[in-house]
Design brief:
By secondary structure, this protein is α/β, with parallel strands linked by helices. Among the domains are: about 5-150, Rossmann fold, CATH 3.40.50; about 160-285, Hect, E3 ligase catalytic domain fold; about 365-450. The protein has 16 helices and 17 strands. Helix 6 crosses helix 7 (about 240-245) and helix 10 (about 365-410) runs antiparallel to helix 12.
Length: about 525
Amino acid sequence: MTINAPRWLGKSPRALGIVRVSSKKQGDNNSPGVQREGITAHARALGLHVVDIVMLEESAKSSDARVKFHAALARAKKEKVRHLVFWVWDRTTRNFTDYELLEDLIRRDEVVLHVAHERWQLHAGSDEGDWLKAEMNTLVAKTYSRQLSRRAKESQDAKAKDGWYPTRPPLGYRNAKLVGANGVVKDRGGTIVLLAEGRALLRRMYELRLAGRSLDAIGQAVVAEGLWAALGRKNRRLVAGDIEHILKHEFYAGWFTWRDERYRGKHEPVFTQDEWERLQATFGHRAPYGSPLENGGALQGFMTCAECGCLITYDPKVKASGKRYDYYRCSNGHRVHHKRVHVTEAQLLAQFEAAIANIEMPHALADEISRVLRETHEVVRAERRREIGVLKRTVEDLQAREDRVVGLYVDSKLDDVTYQRQRDMLMSEKHAALDRLSAASEELDDKYLVTADRIFELAKQARTLWNQRTPTERRQLLEMVLSNPRLDGVTVRYDMKKPFAILSEMTKGNDWRARRDSNT
């Protein structure tokens, strides 16, 4: 008795196995070895000839990033390979763009997609139940990918707040995994360790820079001395841009920035704060590097000319007696000025002092504003918690309704058109509810209160901080408070950054509560 093979097998038994992992360290039941063995066994059971098993190391959540996946499909089409064999469904795709691409190829009977672990196929003759299964699997995989991404970001943010850089550290450091009591290296957690070779390289760069060496010369020196190769770097030439990037990376001073938030790191710094300031002072717009006037002024590169837009440059004068005068002037790069106008650093700082004075407010007023902000925030939080509860119940109700629609469709009690219309309507309502839920959840965040507290603490002691700081530290304070600083002849102009502009308005009168209430 002869048993006819299924029509979907086609005339060609050629198959291409596709193994996908998100990273080299993936070690669960989707590891490369498990996938490869499962694909091979599935193909053997169906009498398929596996021409190759390709390995894809890439995420499946975004179609644009799946270069290797699309290359594999192109290869199958070019070599007329009919059967594509994956281990489980989420190894195929986690986005609907690639799902629609596969669906088009399958419905045109160009390929047959095999899911080896579940021993089922999707082909041109598949019924709507199989297509629904494929669509639901894609939705589940997409949701899982989104949740995985969210959890990873939350974990990284928590690590950053704890003082540890969440990802690979810069040159000279390495991630050190924690070791358990049994001597087994833990997969999660760890610290960042400064390598001896990294310290030697950075300290040598620092010494050369403060000695007046150019960036190119520093690159040549550390390569020639073997310090670069000691870190496993094979290139024999370092360009000036690479050296500048390294020497300006504040990670080496004990700080890092993560998602636009600046944190004090717990890792061992290479430079002290004083050394870091001296190093950064070697960069900027001033006299040529290596000249006797190399030590820059505190305000170099900070302002622009109000008339022509060029940078205000540091142009000190040294008398025969050796006494030095710190002057600034427009660099006049556009050749607009016919005469140089010099202004002393002391004159500029005296004018900027007014900006700091404008944001200072009495302790009682600052504390009262902070208290009212917190009270208002608590009222908003209570309302948002109530709203979140309502929205969660709405989402759960919509999900239950969607499940009932799917059940009716699977039981053939709904036709295709009615099912699609009902499902689209429910999905639209659910997405709108989820968007409102996300927005309400964000309003529970009290990060802005922490920022506000810092601003009010600065406002309460603005003059004291200004008077106690060095010119360089005053520059840093001005960068926090001001934007668009410019020099109009000998007069300083500037705009205040939004939080401090509001503080400046508050200090001019006590009607701030009335203005707030009038807008509610």
